[in-house]
């Protein structure tokens, strides 16, 4: 279980552009198997003080996430639950149906954040209008997007007049997305990092050096770097000890010089698909 101080840190976070609070750190469940694996991961995270869980329709584990939430013993209103509409379900009416299906699988009456998973050309504008409708109906507390570049964001803002609360993208020391981060900060869009730990590719000498300096793991250094850049982060793990380790990032601070050293690792390298060149 989390200590009182750690638990407080794990519930803290930015206030989104509609006034809803979101934790800085959450559990990602991409590639976490439906059934016992995801149930136990969710319970371990909530037991460790996490209050944010991020899933998606395409992950195929929304049912297990819902079970883990119910078995955690923590009140629903203390949790921040995110899911996403998949590419094949995009479009106005189909998005509304997909949302209902996600709620049914999760066993929830609402979610805290609903995202468009990818900017599917010719569909994401209508999909965004469906999310705006869900938000206006009070069925979701905040709406946002995932994997949107600056031009995609400009499209939906100009089209709808509604600015997304969150943009969840691949973000890590090898892909710092500076232009996108600056645009989102300017527009009041909270950036959120998926694959923050570079899918395990943490063997960078700078990270090793800083881990030794601060008495932390390379993963903890990267997660702290995210938070100090004002980026929400959702590392994925199914191991209880790793889930706990990932949460222990609120008791130290990287110096400006060390932040700059990590920034300098940027290569524009993606481990996932490029949103502008992805076969949807």
UniProtKB/TrEMBL annotation:
Pfam families: Aldo_ket_red (PF00248). InterPro entries: AKR (IPR020471), AKR5G (IPR044500), Aldo/ket_reductase_CS (IPR018170), NAD(P)_OxRdtase_dom_sf (IPR036812), NADP_OxRdtase_dom (IPR023210). Residues 25-266 form the NADP-dependent oxidoreductase domain. It comes from the Bacteria. Keywords: NADP, Oxidoreductase. Belongs to the aldo/keto reductase family. This is Aldo/keto reductase.
């Amino acid at each position: 279980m989390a200590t009182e101080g750690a638990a407080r840190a794990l519930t803290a976070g930015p206030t989104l552009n509609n006034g809803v609070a979101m934790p800085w750190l959450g559990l990602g469940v991409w590639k976490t198997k439906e059934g016992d694996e995801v149930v136990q991961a969710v319970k371990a995270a909530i037991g460790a003080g996490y209050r944010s869980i991020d899933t998606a329709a395409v992950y195929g584990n929304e049912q297990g996430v819902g079970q883990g939430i119910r078995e955690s013993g923590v009140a629903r209103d203390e949790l921040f639950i995110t899911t996403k509409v998949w590419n094949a379900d995009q479009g106005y009416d189909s998005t509304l149906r997909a949302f209902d299906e996600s709620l049914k699988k999760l066993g929830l009456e609402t979610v805290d954040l609903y995202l468009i998973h990818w900017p599917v050309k010719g569909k994401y504008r209508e999909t965004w209008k469906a999310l705006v409708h869900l938000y206006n109906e009070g069925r979701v507390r905040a709406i946002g997007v995932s994997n949107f570049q600056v031009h995609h964001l400009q499209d939906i803002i100009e089209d709808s007049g509604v600015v997304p609360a969150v943009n969840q993208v691949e973000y890590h020391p090898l892909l710092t997305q500076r232009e996108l981060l600056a645009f989102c900060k300017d527009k009041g869009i909270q950036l959120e990092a998926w694959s923050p730990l570079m899918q395990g590719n943490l063997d960078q000498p700078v990270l090793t050096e800083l881990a030794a300096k601060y008495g932390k793991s390379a993963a903890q250094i990267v997660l702290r770097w995210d938070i100090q850049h004002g980026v929400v982060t959702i590392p994925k793990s199914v191991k209880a000890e790793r889930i706990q380790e990932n949460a222990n990032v609120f008791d130290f601070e990287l110096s400006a010089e060390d932040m700059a050293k990590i920034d300098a690792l940027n290569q524009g390298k993606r481990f996932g698909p490029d949103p502008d060149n992805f076969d949807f």
